[in-house]
Amino acid sequence: MAKRLPDRPLRPATHLVRGGQMRSGFDETAEALFLTSGFVYDSAEQAEATFLGTEQHYQYSRFGNPTVTMLEDRLALLEGAEACRLTATGMAAVHAALLSHLKTGDRVVASRALFGSCHWIVSTLLPRYGIRAEFVDGGDLDQWKAALATPANLVLLETPSNPMLDMVDLAAVSDLAHAAGAVVVVDNVFATPLLQKPLQFGADVIVYSLTKHMDGQGRVLGGAVLGRKKWVDEVLQPFVRNTGPALSPFNAWIILKGLETLHLRLPAMCRSAAAIADFLAERSEVARVLYPFRADHPQQGLAKAQMAAGGSLVTFEVKGGKDAAFRFMNALGIVDVSNNLGDSKSLATHPATTTHMRVGAEERAKLGITDGTIRLSVGLEDVADLIDDLSAALDSLAPAPVPTRRVAPPVEPIEEPPVLAAPEPGTESAAKPKRSRTRTEPKAPAAETPSLLEFAAILPDAPRRKH
Ligand SMILES: Cc1ncc(COP(=O)(O)O)c(C=O)c1O
Fold first, then answer.
1. Are residues 233 and 270 in the same domain?
2. What CATH number has the domain bearing residue 73?
3. Structural domain contains residue 144
4. Probe ligand 1: pick from 212, 214, 356, 359, max atoms within 8 Å of CB?
5. What secondary structure, in 3-state letters, does the chain show?
6. Each residue of 350-363: pLDDT tens digit?
7. Cβ of 115 below 6 Å from ligand 1
8. Ligand 1 pocket, residue 223 CB under 6 Å
9. CB 3.0 to 4.6 Å from 303: which of 118, 270, 292, 466, for a disulfide?
10. CA of 115 relative to ligand 1 center, distance in Å
11. What are 165-206's pLDDT values in tens digits?
């Protein structure tokens, strides 16, 4: 039976733990996993009525499943959206949101700074169906104005963007898009609904890869599309029902359990990310650091107006290009080399050779992705250990000392070579040579990052559109 939560507004942490839960007749505590592909009917008449839509009954897990419904309702409550549909991956969510809405002859305007596969859908797939696409620099409102002076059907953007953490002004672009006749689709993966709620700034549709912070423990893939009920029921649902990108109930169940700790995990990750950004900015091996809440981020003001904290990702550039970036990544002892993000394990990515390899060198140059660029997804390890790890890997970039030629002193001939006794275990000379690495206590982050409690207090009132 559906648990009736109180009618008064509840806070995000409560939605994350309780939202959407439906209890079966067995009164289980945890959300039940309905691992079933289909459902049965009391009678042929009930089956007919279900297909006619005159009776509400689950039919088939490609169309809907109770465990999946619980996650859809939880995410809709968290986002403040009227409706949600889930997909097997984040890319299936982006694909479904775009292809369900668009038709031949339509026009799309997108920010250039998109995740590689989203960029491919817009630049390569849509034109195959006669859908024209135009890219703009997402941070440049004049480019948006120029592109949206011509009628358009859909705007796609990502803020903060992957991997350069560029911001797009959600309210201004939504206004321009609506005036041009376009719906605004926002990929909110980097911010999560705890840090940024694009619907409050005028966006229409939000897409997520649930694979990232929502699962948060590197286990399963998933995607979500959220928006108005009419659009979800009439535009999106027929598309997903008939094309079949359905989320597995098992994955939905894992993500439901992942969400229960998102409000505890994310503030800790954001605090560590801010401290790491400040640490990296002090290092001579690092050419530049990008973190949305740091004073040197070119769009810090916009980031603070739209987001509750700076996020769990830090992007930086090591001096010395690809060679230095690879040496740095290979020297990491705790942080893993991976192309994923939002995990409890810290992960380092070299976008130019992985996530953004296929967008091409010219487009990467426009995006500011250099061969020395590294994207760091900060996890839940102790931040002092992470800083030690990064510090040691940066130390390893120091050029090897040039050997100086010395004239060897004359050697006194010795009759018998001395025999050195094996050192006692535990003595100074038995110890392995230590890597020169300085343990660095994390400084209080210069980028303002709320404490856990402050963060929880901000969440219900995350930045909103002012008008
Ligand atoms: C910003 C962004 N959008 C979409 C996706 C696609 O998500 P998925 O891998 O779950 O398909 C990713 C994946 O890295 C991403 O970073």
1. no
2. 3.40.640.10
3. yes
4. 212
5. CECCCCCCCCCHHHHHHHCCCECCCCCCCCCCCCCCCECCCCCHHHHHHHHHCCCCCCCECCCCCHHHHHHHHHHHHHHCCCEEEEECCHHHHHHHHHHHHCCCCCEEEEECCCCHHHHHHHHHHHHHCCCEEEEECCCCHHHHHHHCCCCCCEEEEECCCCCCCCCCCHHHHHHHHHHCCCEEEEECCCCHHHHCCHHHHCCCEEEEECCCCCCCCCCCCCEEEEECHHHHHHHHHHHHHHHCCCCCHHHHHHHHHHHCCHHHHHHHHHHHHHHHHHHHHCCCCEEEEECCCCCCCCCHHHHHHHCCCCCCEEEEEECCHHHHHHHHHHCCCCCEECCCCCCCCCEEECHHHCCCCCCCHHHHHHHCCCCCEEEEECCCCCHHHHHHHHHHHHHCCCCCCCCCCCCCCCCCCCCCCCCCCCCCCCCHHHCCCCCCCCCCCCCCCCCCCCCHHHHHHHHHHCCCCCC
6. 999 999 998 899 99
7. yes
8. yes
9. 292
10. 7
11. 999 999 999 999 999 999 999 999 999 999 999 999 999 999
